Amino acid sequence: MFDLRSDMPASERLPTLCEIHGAALRAGVKLPPVDTHFGPQLKSLVERISAARPNRPHWRDAETGASLSGTVIQRDLFSVAEPELNTGIGHILWLYQYFALKTANESVNESMGGTLGAHAVGRRHLSQAAYEAEAFVHWNGPPLVNARPLLHRALDIHFKEMFPEGEWHFHHRSFGGQRSLLVRGTSVVLARKGEEHCKLPLLRGRCACHTCKPCAQCRRLPRCKCA
After folding, report:
1. pTM of the model
2. Which of 78, 167, 182, 209 lies at 20 to 30 Å from 217 by C-alpha?
């Protein structure tokens, strides 16, 4: 019903609108009648989009002429600079916006559920609180290739009583682990991932004051002198 790219007339969209309107009324939502509000406004919306399409080349692909995503049309439809598209049809635009936001929210929830499911696998035997904490870090933390400064700061907090100056360090007992400290190889994938940058300036290898840079050899952040 709300496919902005289609030239389907309003008369063919009206039955779907009536079904949606009826379902909303049965659910207790108070809406004005279709005949006096939603129906005429839907007709105006379709007519305005169809009339504006020939004069809007940015709504179509320059090479194929095919209609672009409905979000391109939607940007103009809800723009205050386009009163000829949206004036006087507030009810139908409200309904359109409701379904558009509902679809976006569902996609976000599915993405978050997939992230949570990656941590809540049965073979790890984690408690609910544990995998919730992991998922929280996954959602809000930096990419793994940029996580070293954040991990160093977390260890500084963890060992603050034992090493107040942040001089903690770990030892590798195996030969391979000791050798890896001297020979730091990389791969094409790691090199590509290493070029990714976190959007948070705090986690881009600097401290909260944005002046303390990490050591060039171990990439470890020094204790911030500005705190």
Report:
1. 0.49
2. 209
